[in-house]
Amino acid sequence: MNSLPDDFWGWVVYLLRQYGSSFLRGAGTTMLIAVISTAVGCLIGFGVGIVQTTPTDKAHPVKYFLMKLVRFLLDAYVEIFRGTPMMVQAMFIYYGLAQLFNIHLGTMEAALFIVSINTGAYMAETVRGGILSIDPGQTEGAKAIGMTHVQTMNAVILPQALRNIMPQIGNNLIINIKDTCVLSVIGTVELFFATKSVAGAMYTYFEAFTITMVIYFVLTFSCSRLLRLWESKMDGPDSYELYDLATTDTLAHTTGLYSYPKKPRENTQNNDIRDGGR
Predict the structure, then answer these.
(1) Dihedral, CA of residue 42, residue 45, residue 50 and residue 52, to nearest 10
(2) Which end of the chain has fewer CB atoms within 10 angstroms, the N or the C?
(3) Is 115 exposed, middle or buried (0-12, 13-18, 19+ CB in 10 A)?
């Protein structure tokens, strides 16, 4: 029987050998929850943000009243989920659904639902700000050529707003990777929960959570670099002339490939008069 290690790095290696699969399963669950919930939260945020920025027409009282009511409910949703901790939301929703409505969600289903609606509340404000950041003149121009509000949003406003809010989408993904640890309160076996189990079994809390801290950093740093790469791809090339996107006519290039020849000076009386008789 092998003796247990007696130093820090020895325990780190021992835990990786004995419980490496537990750490990997926990990290996989964490990433699964974070990625799916961020995607669903973005869809929720876009829906709420678009409704919040849709113009209302007082000429139709019924539609105006319904739009005001919907906006009030959406504003309440955003403020409640942005103003309370996700750990409290997890406890409230997981146990509240079971007690009040007899809905018993599995821990994984509950985790996806909780993180998605929490992310949606934050994304709603991000999308609203992204839409309002677009120059109003573009909306006016689109309507001037006969585009409807839906066409304007789909073809003009939302593509630009999406690029503007891409950093915040990436930020929400990184936050969700870290904040999934609060789901351990409802029994979701993600990375933090798995680490507590390993640390409790061997009483090696420092060593186990050192491994977990490194795993979290690798996950968040990798996602951050990938999102930066995606943002650069959305920006396009710095110079479109490199790809001949503008024109294939060298006369129209701005790189100085063509210069017009100087006209020969004509020896006329007008030139002599204009040049002062020289």
Answers:
(1) -170
(2) N
(3) buried
Report how far residue 13's alpha carbon sits from residue 21's, in angstroms, rounded to the nearest whole number.
Answer: 13
One-letter identity of residue 275? D
pLDDT value, residue 216: 97
- Do the beta carbons of residue 246 and residue 252 sit within 8 Å? yes
DSSP letter at 182 equals: G
Question: Coil, strand, or helix at residue 58?
Answer: coil
- CA distance linking residue 231 with residue 166, whole number of Å: 7
Mind giving me the DSSP string for 133-147?
Answer: TS-HHHHHHHHHTT-
Residue pair 160/134 in contact (Cβ under 8 Å)? The answer is: yes
Asked if 50 and 131 touch (Cβ cutoff 8 Å), the reply is yes
Contact indicator for 5, 201 with CB cutoff of 8 Å: no
Mean per-residue pLDDT pooled into runs of 10, the chain (278 residues): 82 94 96 97 94 83 90 95 96 94 94 96 93 88 87 89 90 95 94 94 93 97 92 70 46 47 54 47
d(CA 191, CA 31): 9
Are 193 and 23 within 8 A, CB to CB?
no
Max Cα–Cα distance, the chain, nearest Å: 113
